[in-house]
Design a protein that fits this description.
There is one protein chain. By secondary structure, this protein is mostly helical. Among the domains are: 104 residues; 98 residues. It is built from 32 helices and no strands.
Length: 570
């Protein structure tokens, strides 16, 4: 009787998540010779409730050391501790051990193992376990529980197609899907951006006899949110009341985020106001979505007001909050404010993130504060953050704006030394820096390096290289680049031909300039006023008045195709 009472006391402590108290009772039971396998099972369950799998493993070792014969319930308790901590390898090891001990796994055993595989996104293992579980179980209820656990693995791994295949198999076996089944599969479709399929599943769930809950609806709203389908998200939010369901903070946050992703900042703020007036209190996630919506629209003042509102409501801003507000500062080039917000992250003991630093560097770049941008790049390492490609792209762009091509190339070299993969944007910014500083040979070297970097040149990189050659009167190089672009299937545009014409004009090569002008017309790239102006100057410089007269006549007849003359091109 004393042993039974002790085990009940341990179970009570376990349900209250007081695992230390449960272990203390175990030690007392051991002193009085009352500890048996049931006692250890109860303590293992207590550790599982408290998500303390490390202590559970230590207790499992004690079970073996004390020569106690563990039953399947003991294994289930240890597996429960593994599930709470996503320790899938340890869980599968325990399952294999149970099999070796000739113990018959129960539905709970399989559900727990499937659950831990699900949390670790190990959907292939989950499917293998599901097949074993189906052979071992006879009840359809068990089929639903284990299938739901396998679906959860697909959800976490964003394997919506595998989840749908499993769902079809469940229906083929005439097993009634549960609300959890639909909720999980809708969530999986949302992760895979299959929002239309998610809505079809919701419709099927609504037409069934199941009692749909808020979790199901939230999964559908989130599916629309991830695909930026803001109107559908708002529609689903509005229908919650019709199904006698109350919107939760998750519902509001997903809807606000859907508007943010679709660039609907007005709708985001309107929803935030509605949420504030309801009995549901928006949390930091809700505010973060609204702030991001304002940031994308360049509304830095509104973003700042929302940040102040968070603190006024005694909510804790997160690093995501500050990063979003700093991003808003970028559009308005409010670099002083961006640096101040970055400092606040440190003051409030929030984790400094690469995203926040990148936003601050981009803001300084936009404000032409290149020294501040480079200092932030250095500060990232001081703060033990690793700059990424976005960090370097922003810093290189800062150098490009002030014509510091040598520093831009040095940053590119630093990026390479860190084994980071440069993008076309990275190399393009360096080419542009060389172009603006009239270093055409360096620009061409960078363009030539693109294939070795496994990058494909584009119109922007080609045009920047052409402009570099044009500025240095390297008309041979410019013509060669234009031909190379066509051979490499790089699309040329008006800017490409205008740059090549400029190169010829700088070198006094009026015949080539004129030839390029007609070639552009033949390619349906109607030259603009600037390009005609360059060709005119080339003819004037060579004293070819006949050519100038002919060009002026062409301008008159083609005037309806041209953009207005710029001062520079006239």
């Amino acid at each position: 009787m004393a042993s039974v009472a002790c085990n009940r006391a341990i179970s009570a402590e376990g349900r209250a998540k007081h695992w230390e108290a449960a272990v203390s009772l175990l030690r007392g039971a051991e002193e009085h010779g009352l500890a048996d396998v049931v006692t250890y099972t109860a303590v293992l369950s207590a550790c599982a409730f408290a998500s303390h799998w490390g202590r559970a493993i230590e207790l499992w070792v004690e079970v073996k050391a004390n020569g106690l014969e563990a039953d399947i319930q003991t294994y289930n308790a240890a597996l429960g501790a593994c599930e709470k901590s996503s320790a899938w390898e340890e869980a599968l090891s325990l399952l294999a051990e149970a099999r070796r001990a000739k113990l018959q796994p129960t539905g709970a055993t399989y559900c727990t193992c499937l659950g831990v595989c699900g949390k670790a996104s190990q959907w292939q293992l989950a499917f293998a376990l599901l097949g074993e579980a189906e052979c071992a179980q006879n009840s359809k209820e068990g089929d639903v529980r284990t299938s739901n656990a396998a679906l959860s693995a697909c959800d976490r791994a964003s394997e919506w197609a595998q989840g749908l295949s499993l769902f079809k198999e469940v229906r083929r076996k005439q097993v009634q899907p549960s609300v959890v089944t639909f909720s999980t599969l809708i969530s999986a479709c949302g992760r895979g951006s299959e929002w239309q399929l998610a809505l079809c599943l919701l419709e099927e769930a609504l037409n069934s006899k199941l009692q749909i809950n808020t979790i199901t609806m939230n999964s559908a709203i989130s599916a629309c949110e991830k695909a930026a389908q803001w109107q559908w998200a708002l529609l689903l939010l509005g229908t919650l009341a019709a199904w006698q369901l109350e919107a939760t903070v998750v519902s509001w946050s997903a809807a606000v985020s859907a508007c943010e992703k679709a660039g609907q900042w007005q709708a985001s703020l309107s929803l935030l106001r509605e949420a504030r007036s309801s009995h549901v209190h928006p949390n930091a996630i809700t505010y973060n979505a609204a702030i991001s919506a304002c940031a994308a629209a360049g509304l830095w003042q509104r973003s700042l007001m929302l940040l102040e509102e968070i603190t006024d409501r005694l909510l804790q801003p997160t690093e995501v909050t500050y990063a979003a507000v700093i991003s808003a500062c970028e559009v308005a080039a409010e670099w002083h404010l961006a640096l101040s917000l970055l400092q606040k992250l440190t003051v409030q003991h929030l984790r400094l993130s690469t995203v926040a630093f990148n936003a601050a560097i981009s803001t300084c770049t936009r404000a032409a504060e290149w020294q501040q941008a480079l200092q932030l790049l250095v500060l990232m390492e001081v703060r033990q953050l690793c700059p990424d490609v976005t960090s370097y792209n922003a810093a290189i762009s800062a150098c490009e704006r002030v014509l510091d091509w040598t520093r831009a190339l040095a940053l590119l070299g630093d990026l390479d030394a860190r084994s980071l993969q440069a993008t076309v944007i990275t190399v393009g910014a360096c080419i542009s820096a060389c172009e603006k500083a009239a270093h055409w040979s360096s620009a061409l070297s960078l363009l030539d390096s693109l294939p070795t970097r496994r990058l494909s040149p584009n119109t922007i990189t080609l045009n920047a290289s052409l402009s570099a050659c044009a500025g240095a009167a390297q008309w041979h190089q410019a013509l060669g680049l234009l031909r190379w672009g066509a051979a490499s299937a790089v699309e040329t545009d008006q800017i490409s031909y205008s740059a090549a014409v400029e190169g010829c004009e700088q070198a006094g090569e009026w015949e080539h300039a004129l030839s390029l002008l007609w070639e552009a017309s033949d390619c349906s790239l109607n030259p603009d006023a600037t390009t005609f102006g360059l060709a005119l100057r080339a003819g004037e410089g060579a004293g070819e008045l006949r050519v100038v007269s002919s060009l002026l006549g062409e301008v008159r007849t083609s005037f309806h195709k041209l953009a207005p003359f710029s001062r520079e091109g006239a």
